[in-house]
Amino acid sequence: MTVEPAPVNHGIKFLRTDIGEDAVIEALVDYVTTTARGTTLEKGEVKISTLEHLMAALSGFQIDNALIKIDSQEVPILDGSAKPYMEQFVAAGIKDQGEPRKIFTLKEKIQYTNESGCEVVLMPDDDFSVDLMLDFNSKVLGNQYARFNRNTNFVTDIAPCRTFVFFHELEPLFQHNLIKGGDLDNAIVIVENPVPQSELDRLAALFNVRTLERAPEGYLNHLELRFSNECARHKLLDIMGDFSLVGVPIRAKIIGYKSGHGINTQVAKKVREAYLNSLK
Ligand SMILES: [Zn+2]
User: Cα(269) to centroid of ligand 1, in Å?
Assistant: First the structure.
């Protein structure tokens, strides 16, 4: 995958080089099809999946125009965060294209609650900010909170936060081919209750990891947390990625409670509608 510069008003687009020169899809919420374990866009035969962390990196770095060339459907998950993308953007540098950014200022509150009690609210505000709360009804991952506002350093405080999975989800995911050996390198694993070492050894063999232990805080020991609330910060990263699919930077306060890609993109669709209406 390569990220290339693009002219003013180009927006963010993906080109599937393995399909052909015309296999382009705009990074817009209009094309979201599925949101299970990541956000997927589809336009005809052009499909792009797990783009949210790359999109968050682009939006966090205020990159409005880029052409992403990719030779397969799946955007690389790398370490499960946006850090590797961010490092490449920092190394490559960003060019000011000399045009004022188009920004959509939300005029009316948009609120959505789903049947699982997840909620995303956007309030008009003169700045962009996110307040994120998660609550997994879990001893290890109960209430956790993260914020993003103009004082937050996206590069150091949000981009490095990795995705997470519960220990009891690992084996079903493995059996359904949704994760594979080696994938433990790019996710925090939450272990609710002590697990017999024999069980951990069995999973270690399945995932090709030398040894697995449950750390006292309730996480698997194969990686160290980058922040005590890394999971909430990651959900915030996901929100930023999903809302960048509105297609224009937004000025609003986003409040996410138990949010995920499904509800994020449903609300982002409403925001895009409001944006398109504002142009009429
Ligand atoms: Zn994510």
Answer: 19
